[in-house]
Every structure is written in C-alpha cells, then in structure tokens.
Amino acid sequence: MKQFILGTAGHIDHGKTSLIKAISGYDTDRLKEEKLRGITIELGFAALDLPGGIHLGIVDVPGHEKFVKNMVAGASGIDLVTMIIAADEGIMPQTREHLEICTLLGIRHGLIVLTKIDMVDEEWRELVTEDIREFVTGTFLEDAPLVPVSSITGEGVPELIQAIADLCAGLAERKPSGLFRLPADRVFTMKGFGTVITGTLVSGRITTGETIMIYPSMITSKVRGLQVHDRIVEEAAAGMRTAINFQGIEKAVVNRGDVVARPDTLKTSFMLDVELQLLKSFGKKIKNRTRVRFHTGTSEVPCHILLLDRETLDPGETAMVQLRLDTPVTCVRNDRFVIRSYSPSRTLGGGRIIDPVPEKHKRFRQETISHLEAIRSDDPEAIIVAHTEIAGFNELSLADLVIMTDLAENRLDSTLQSLLSRQILIQTDREVKRYIHRKTFEDFAAEIVDRLKLYHAANPIKEGMPKGELASKFPPNLSIKLFNLMLSMMVKTGDIIQTDNTLRLPGHSVTLASDQSDVKEKIIRIFNKNGLQPPTFKDLTATLGVDPKTVRNVLMMLVAGGEMVKVNEDLFFHADTMARLKRQLVDYLKENGEISTPQFKEMTGTSRKYTIPLIEFFDTGNVTIRIGDIRRLRKQE
Questions:
Q1: Which helix (H) or strand (E) holds 244?
Q2: Beta 497-499 vs 502-504: how paired, if at all?
Q3: Could you give the CA distance from residue 197 to residue 201 in angstroms, rounded to a whole number?
Q4: Which residue, 265, 553, 592, 600, is the most exposed by fewest CB within 10 angstroms?
Q5: Is 166 a residue whose pLDDT tops 90?
Q6: At 31, is the pLDDT very low, low, confident or very high (cuts 50, 70, 90)?
Q7: Which 8-state DSSP code applies to residue 203?
Q8: How far apart are the C-alpha atoms of 612 and 325, rounded to whole Å?
Q9: How confident is the model at residue 359 (pLDDT cuts 50, 70, 90)?
C-alpha cells in the first residue's frame, strides 16, 4: 500500500479542521483551548484510506499568524498540500504566507480547496475562483485542481476525496533510504505505556525492539511499540504518521524538534551551510549577522545569518550563507528550512541545507566560496570529492557521507567504488569504511620527504629521523593510525625506508666530517680498551675535549650501526664486549640454572656502578628474567 502525508494550509477560520472532519471523520482539535476558542493551535492528525489502495496521513496545521511556527513544523515532511481558501473571504495574509512557506519547504504537489461555498452565491464563487487562479500563477499550484466544498452540507466532499486520490496515484513514493529519521512533533505520556513520541517518518524504516537514539541529547532507548494512525504495527516506513512508545525514557528529556534515529547515524551541529532565498515579499534587505528564527523539521532555533560573500542580501536574491545556531540541530543535506524574522516574527525566506556539519567559515574567502559551489552541485562525485578534499586528515566515514550527500545507499556505494578505482579517494579503514582524498596523501608524502631532507641536512651522522619526532610535526587531527597507514604506503612504494622506529630517505647515508671521523676512531679505541669498565658519557666528553652534542651524535651513529650498545643515557659498551658477556652469562645459566647479583658482579669483575645497569639491560633485552634476588635464563620462543 502506498503511503503519503497530506498537509493543510491556509488562513485562520477558513475551515481546515472542519474539512478534515468531513473527509476523514477525525476531529483534529484535541485541546480544550482549541475547543473553547474555535481555532487550531497545535498540530492535529488524521488518516484516510483512499480509492486505489492508498493510505493517507493528514496533518492539520494552525492558520493564525501567532502559530505559524507550528504550521512550519506540520508542513515539514508532507508529500502534498491542500491550500484551503474560504469562499466568503478569499485570499488572506496567512494564505500568502503559507503558500510561500510550502514553496520554501520544497513541496511540489497539491490542490486548492474552496471552502464554505454554502455561504456565497454562484457569482461570488466565480469571482473568488478567478482571484485564486491569478494568485497561484507562477507557483507549484498553478495547474492544481480546484475543488469547491461545503463541510456543512457535504457538497463537493466525494469529489475532493477522488481528486486527492487521483493526485496521489501520480506521485512517486519516497526514495529508499537506510537512514531512519523521525522528527518529533509531539511528546506525551500514556498511563501504562510511558513516553510516546509522534512524528512523520521522513526516511527509512523502524521495527519494534530496535535501539534508537534521540538527537541532539544522544539518549538511547528501545522501541517498545509502534502505532500508525492508531493501529499497532511491527514496522513503520517512510511517509507514515508514526507513534513510538519508548522503554525507560522520561518525557522531560525529549522535546519537539528532537530527531529519532538509529545510534551514531546522525550528527549534531551548531552551524549549517545553506542556500538561502530571501523572499521578494519580505520587501527589505538583510545585513550580515541578522538574528532570525530557523525552522527545519519540527525544530525552531534562534540563529544569526553569516553572509559569506556580501554585506547585504536583497529581496528575491539567493546566496550561500552559514547559519550560526544558539542550540544544535540534527540535519541531512537537502533538508528544507524556513527563516522568520526574530521580532516581529515574519517569514523572510528559506531554502535547503547544503552541508549539515560544516567547519566554521571566515567571510570573503574564495576557497570557502568555491567549496560551497562544489557541494551545491547535484553531481554525487563532485560533492564527495569536495567534502573529502576539504576534510584533509579528518577521515570521513560512510555514515558521514550519508548525511553529507543524501544519496541512496546503492548510489553512494557505486559512486565511492568509482572514485576508489580511479584512485581519487583512498579507503583508510575497510571495516568502518573511512576515506581520505588522494591529495591529502600526496600532500602528506611531500611534507614527509621535505622534513626528512631537512633532518638529514641538519643531522648528517644520524641514520634517520625518529618516527615519534616526525609525527609531532603534524597537526593533532592526524590520528596515529592514519599516520602509520600513510607511512606504510610510502615504505611500500620505496619513497622512504623504515628501520625499527627510524625513517630516512632512500638516498641518505651517514657522512662524517673529518673531525667527527677522528672522534669516532677515538671512541672505538677507548671502549675496546676499557671493556666492561668504560668511561661514562661525561668522562668520555672530558677525555675527548669535544662538544658533548658531537660526542652524543657519534655515539648514537655507532649504536645505530651496531658497533656500540647503549645501556642507559650515561653508559655505552662496545658491541663485541657485550656479545662476549652475553655468551658467558647464557653459558653460566645453562649450567647453573640461576645467578645472583653478587655472582654476576664477580663474573664481570666490575663495580656495582656497572653491574646493576648491565644485569638490568639483559632483563629488558629478554635474556634473563628476575625472580626475587636471582636471575634465570628466559625461555626463548
């Protein structure tokens, strides 16, 4: 069965609620105040099964200008609209504003209902009809059916139901999406059931028992039960008016405007990049940082408009702007929105969201303008490329790209596969599916080469640059995991060489100046001569009469080359001396099973100054294992 949502629109007291009752039997005015005052204040809901097997959900919206924010909430997520105009009054202020709001929200289908025809004569009806046709010229309702109806006498009601059915029969069902989203328009508690959230399911599906998350609070809960128009169901799909009963969640933590979705599928943001159209009817320009009320889905949030490429926006103009919000919202690319002036409240414009999770922009930056023009495109590849390019080291996940592109899963997947096969994108995580732009890797590789060149030039006697030191040169948003991945890609292609935790360029070799070569020869002679009782670093430096930095660099070069062994920062031994001591220690342990520190001291013939560092060196080198006061030979795997 096809599912569609019909919304009402029109001026106060033009008969919207009476019309819904006439065609569906539902009285959508449920509040005591609505009954007393005879006007709709809050959203009302009804349902109707149409000829042809179509199920229609109906959203009744308020007409009074004080409740336009409720009208916007109701109009979000509808598939078609009935523009209701009373025959005795004709076109009124909220008729105009509601039509503008529907246009801004991207509604493209609807029909016009001329109500209260029992209150006027035929001649007046014809005059009003002529006015209406002129009024809708150039709008999405220009060629819409116009049906005269009296909710009192029932005249025209069957014809209206058939007209709605005919219109729905020609509508395409909502595009398939795995992204379940339901903006909450009502939250209440039912005795014996707990907290219930209702709204129009705008995309995806949900089933009883699933875990969901409330955005932006990030509270999770389980779906205890589902209803679609008072019918208990196991599953609800896009286009259905849905009530969700939650397990263990308090009414106080959920508000109208919150979005129900699966955990970690959406993101919240205090900023949005949008395409904003300022209505001609608003009649005046707006300046940068104008404070307004932002409406999307069922939410209303105060915000400022940041004009990125101009100082003012004139009526009728469209611009790419950034909205800076007082509280975070949860959106997806192509979501529609309406903006109303802060005080007095009046609709001034609206449009669509281009980036639901943007970075904070500075004004008059050509790079920013070019990026927004790219993601404004309808080309999926251009959108993905632009987002990954500007993200740099901030890898974008598949979940990120879902909300940034608003693409169906199969189309997003095929687009990503195309970009990967042409090596425009690089997949950095196969399990989570994360991506970076090829340019990010190329820039990284170029910087690695430049930094290693500089390091080799400044440290010619060092084998290479420590990996940790190199990593510290990059911004903190480059994760260690991504850093290591990109390094391994460079190692694989031969652009760099890695030895343990040291990196160097392929052409680099250690070169010593003549004085450094002399220092090297002297160090080797001194350590060969002194065996297990070599000078400390301080004593060595004094003996050589050379700058400590030069001595340290030469020592570390010898360590890297395997000619010397570093036991700690102050003690170094010749590699041959350490190899002989290791063989002697291993042979002793194989014969005797264990050795104490005094026994090891006797073996080396050295003072405690050398004995303790040496035996601890063999511990850390996995030759021996300490058990109390003795050492044993560690089992070799």
A1: strand 241-247
A2: antiparallel
A3: 11
A4: 592
A5: yes
A6: very low
A7: B
A8: 64
A9: very high
Q: Which two tokens stand for residue 612?
A: 């303790």
**Burial environment of residue 457 by CB neighbours within 10 A (0 to 12, 13 to 18, 19 or more):** exposed
H helices, E strands: number in the chain: 19, 35
Look at 94-98, 227-231, 353-357 and tell me which has the smallest mean pLDDT.
Answer: 227-231
For the record, the structure tokens of 214 come out as 């409330």
Distance CA 585, CA 607 (A): 17
The pTM for the full model equals 0.80
Contact 77, 337 (CB under 8 A): no
| 370 beta partners | none
With the C-alpha atoms ordered 312, 318, 321, 326, is the resulting torsion angle positive or negative? positive
* Coil vs helix vs strand at 588: helix
Q: Report the alpha-carbon distance of residue 384 to residue 388 in Å, rounded.
A: 6
Ordered domains of the chain (ranges, CATH): 2-169 (3.40.50.300), 181-261 (2.40.30.10), 268-368 (2.40.30.10), 377-510 (1.10.10.10), 512-637 (1.10.10.10)
Quick one: DSSP state of residue 171? S
pLDDT at 73: 54
Residues 6 or more apart from 43 whose CB is under 8 A from it? 59, 60, 61, 62, 70, 73, 74, 185, 186
Helix (H) or strand (E) holding 598: helix 597-604
The pLDDT assigned to 518 comes to 82
Question: What does the alpha-carbon distance between residue 5 and residue 284 come to, in Å, rounded to a whole number?
Answer: 35
Closest CA to 277 of 231, 334, 326, 315: 315
Q: Region of 406 please: left (phi>0), alpha (psi -120 to 50) or beta.
A: left
Closest CA to 245 of 182, 169, 318: 182
What per-residue confidence (pLDDT) applies to 43? Answer: 65
C-beta of residue 205 within 8 angstroms of C-beta of residue 235:
yes
| R_g of the chain, CA atoms, integer Å | 37
Mean pLDDT calculated for residue range 34-40: 42
> Rounded mean pLDDT of the chain?
89
Distances (CA, A) of 455 to 448, 450, 458, 465, 519: 10, 9, 5, 7, 22
Percent composition of the chain: helix, strand, coil (DSSP 3-state, to 5): 35, 30, 35
User: For the segment 487-523, what is each residue's pLDDT rounded down to a tens digit?
Assistant: 999 999 999 999 888 999 998 876 666 667 788 889 9
> Amino acid letter at 440?
T
Tens digits of per-residue pLDDT, 266-308? 999 999 999 999 999 998 999 999 999 999 988 899 999 999 9
Contacts of 250 (CB under 8 A, 6+ apart): 195
Which range is least confidently modeled, 291-295, 530-534, 543-547? 543-547
CB atoms within 10 A of CB 38: 10
SS3 38: coil
The whole-number pLDDT of residue 536 equals 92
> What pLDDT is recorded for position 41?
41
Strand ranges inside 331-405, DSSP E = 336-341, 347-355, 396-397
Beta pairing class for 205-207 and 235-237: antiparallel
